[in-house]
Each structure stands twice: as C-alpha cells, then as structure tokens.
Automatic annotation (TrEMBL):
Record protein name field: Acetoin utilization protein AcuB
This protein's UniProt keywords: CBS domain
Taxonomy, superkingdom: Bacteria
Taxonomic lineage: Bacteria, Pseudomonadati, Pseudomonadota, Gammaproteobacteria, Aeromonadales
InterPro entries: CBS_dom, CBS_dom_sf, Diverse_CBS-Domain
Domain CBS, chain residue ranges per copy: 8-64, 83-138
Length: 148
C-alpha cells in the first residue's frame, strides 16, 4: 500500500499566527500555493489559512473600508484572526486512497501531515492529480497498440 509519505510535500511553507494577511498573500503569490499551515515555534500545527479564507476576509472587510486603507488592513490583520483552527490532519503512514476519499468527501483542498503534533508535510489536490497522471501513463504503456 502506498502511503502519504511517498507523495506529500515535505517541509511545506508555513507562517506563524502573528504573521499578517499581507504576508500570507505575498507567500501564496510568490510560491504559487493556496494553503498555508500556521505553526508555533515547535512546528506544532495551530491552524490553516487558505486562499479562500483570505479572499473571503478581504471581501467582507473591504466593503467597509476605502481602497486607500486596503494595504493598511492586510498589514494589520493577523492570521490567528482568520485561520481555521479545527483542521483535519493525517499521519504520514495513512493510505493514499483513504486520504483521497477523505479529501473528496469533505471537499478539502489539502491535509496537513503530522507526526505527533509536529507538521512534517502537506498533501494537496495537486499531489493526487500527479498520482492519477502517473497511473494513466502506466495504463497507456500496458495497453496493446491499436491500428486505426
């Protein structure tokens, strides 16, 4: 059985609870990611901030402030104010199929991978797409050639 440790991204980009929304937005844009685990000094998972969280927060708050104050807003709001605290997580030895079904059933975009309470990786929808592509390529290699 293949496990998540074989497909997860080790040492994912993280931020702390006192980092700002602006810092999260910058990291997401720079690294082309949509999920940021929020950790403490011991790398224990505290929560998760997603691009959807940021967009929803910005949209709701920006309706109340002028465009000139948007930068001030994104600099002043800390991630612990918007992060999801109850985050589903998985063990690195969990099976890929079970984790994929869990993501699909709950409509999650990622699962942080923990060893004890410590964040050691993250598995995202993209990781499962890569597995699917690899399986499709293997199937194509095993198919007998067809003449058209």
């Amino acid at each position: 059985m293949m496990t998540l440790s074989e497909i997860m991204t080790e040492h994912p980009f993280t931020l702390g609870p006192s980092n700002s929304v602006k810092q999260a937005m910058d990291l997401m844009q720079q690294e082309r990611i949509r999920h940021i685990p929020i950790v403490d000094e011991q790398h224990h998972l505290l929560g998760l901030v997603t691009l959807t969280d940021i967009l929803a927060t910005r949209e709701s708050k920006l309706l109340l402030i002028s465009p000139e104050r948007e930068a001030e807003f994104t600099d002043s709001v800390q991630l612990d104010e918007i992060m999801t605290r109850q985050v589903a997580s998985v063990d690195p030895h969990a099976g890929i199929k079970e984790a994929a079904l869990y993501l699909q059933r709950h409509r999650y975009g990622c699962l942080p991978v923990l060893k004890g309470r410590k964040l050691i990786g993250i598995v995202t929808e993209s990781d499962f797409i890569a597995v699917a592509i690899n399986l499709l390529e293997l199937m194509e290699e095993q198919e007998p050639p067809t003449d058209f």
